Amino acid sequence: MVFLFQYCSFKFSYKIEITARTTFSIIFNLLTITKMIFYFLVARNNTYFVLVGLGTGCMFGCMFGVWLARKTIANPIMKSVACVSYYGSDNVTLCKTNLPHLRSSSDILVRVRAAAITRLDVEISHGYGKILRRIIQSYNSGSPEMPLVVGRSCSGVVENVGKDSKSGLEIGDEVWLASNFYEIGLASQLVVAHESRIGRKPVLIGFEGAASLPYDGCMALIALKKAKLSENSSIGKKVLIQDGCSAVGCILTQLIKKWGGYVVVTCHQRSAPVVNALGADEIITFSNDSFETNFYEKSIEQSTFMNELLSRQVKYDVVFITTRLNYSTKFIERFLTPHGTIVHAVESIMPSDEYGIFMRMMFKIYVTLKRMGTTVFGVEPKWADEPHLCHNNLDILAGYINDEILNTVVDQVYNPQEAERAVAHVISEKRIGSTIITFR
Q1: Three-state DSSP class for 133?
Q2: How, if at all, do strands 434-438 and 107-117 pair?
Q3: What residues form the membrane-spanning segments (predicted)?
Q4: CB 353 within 8 A of CB 130
Q5: What is the Cα–Cα distance from 316 to 359, expressed in whole angstroms?
Q6: CA distance 192 to 385
Q7: DSSP category for residue 106
Q8: Taking a C-beta distance cutoff of 8 angstroms, is the pair 207, 155 a contact?
Q9: For the segment 135-190, what is each residue's pLDDT rounded down to a tens digit?
């Protein structure tokens, strides 16, 4: 037994000795290799630079490790009405998004009091303009595509002004503004916009009424310009407005009537009293629950809309189409005067939404080159048949409001928590005017 214990102790100590010898041998060989590198591969006069490089690398390595181990600070968030995917209006809901910051010295930060949800926002939730928007946002902010804030126009109070702003706006001023379909929406507690997009809110209306006008008002002004109708040229003109109870239709009805034109509008029975109060001379009403089927049923020749036009036997100088239709409006040409025209006061279809991989690459190159060209010449790029959303048009609308030529038409006002109900009302065929989200 004693012999066995001595034998095991000898074997164990022998193994430790062998292990120590092996370790010492490895360390000796490494030192020898290092010495050979310094003597044969690195000149002695470069040893200083090698040591400096090793020290610098260690220092930056430690700094990078400290940066990785830092405590992350969550970005401040705010309430926004946004769509979380391009799968339809059911995905528009109340979200929490990051607070915006001034991107340039000419930007202005606005605390939103009210924002308008439009049919364009519903189309955006189905993917309208997603390819162009994705490309432009990758250049501007690099922020995630979703959630995408909706709301094309808003009103609020100036919260901060860039140091180089020449707008004359100050903190506390009441303003209104609009955004295009390829830009981030305005239905948030705070928004940032360039000073050229912001105008002073008319003093005669509240925030909810002011939020209903900027985008749709600019759409109406562009439509009037296309139709060559103005305060002087509208006198005696016969004008037909399809869907006169839409937000754009309500604006067109008032302006053309005040300018001396003869206005005929189409609408459902619920909105007839409102359209009549806005100044329509004739109203073509529809009692069917589905407003659009009155325009196009099994045969356009048998539709209620066609029968109404035939019964009147009137030729129109201008026909305004204020909502997107799924069929051709060519049949309306028979009811135009020889020099009459059809004006689409609605956003054009974006072909880029249907592009494949190759066409998307070509489209991105086109957008990049166009951005470079417009930057060189100092002009704002125009990406589609979009309204010109600038403070000049907003000032024109403010003048109409202050002169009591134009009134706001707000159908429903919702809280941000009721975003789903607001969107459902927008797509309802019985809505009148604008639908507003209030952030007060």
Answers
A1: helix
A2: antiparallel
A3: 21-42, 48-69
A4: yes
A5: 41
A6: 24
A7: T
A8: yes
A9: 888 876 556 778 999 999 999 999 999 998 888 899 999 999 999 999 899 999 99
DSSP letter for 188, please: B
The residue count for the chain: 440
Write out the E strands in 269-312: 282-286
What three-state secondary structure class fits 259?
coil
244 vs 252: CA distance, rounded Å: 8
Scan for tokens 């072909």, then name that residue: 351
Per-residue pLDDT tens for 286-326? 765 444 554 444 455 556 677 777 777 889 999 999 988 77
Which DSSP state fits 105?
A: T
CA–CA dist 404, 136 (Å, integer): 39
Query: What 3-state class would DSSP assign to 36?
Result: helix
Tokens of 61: 């390595």
DSSP E strand stretches across 195-245: 198-200, 238-242
Compute the 3-state secondary structure of the chain and give helix, strand, coil in percent, each to the nearest 5.
45, 20, 35
Nearest by Cα to 154 from 196, 199, 97, 122: 199
Token pair 């290092």 in the structure block, residue: 34
Contact (Cβ atoms closer than 8 angstroms) between residue 96 and residue 163: no
Measure the CA–CA gap between 330 and 398, rounded to whole angstroms. Answer: 35
What is the model's pLDDT at position 155?
Answer: 97
Burial of 149-161, coded b for 16+ CB within 10 Å and e otherwise, reads bbbbbbbbebeeb
What is the helix (H) or strand (E) element at residue 80, kind and residue range? strand 77-83
* One-character DSSP codes across 359-394: HHHHHHHHHHHHHHHHHHHT-----SS----SHHHH
Distance CA 117, CA 423 (A): 7
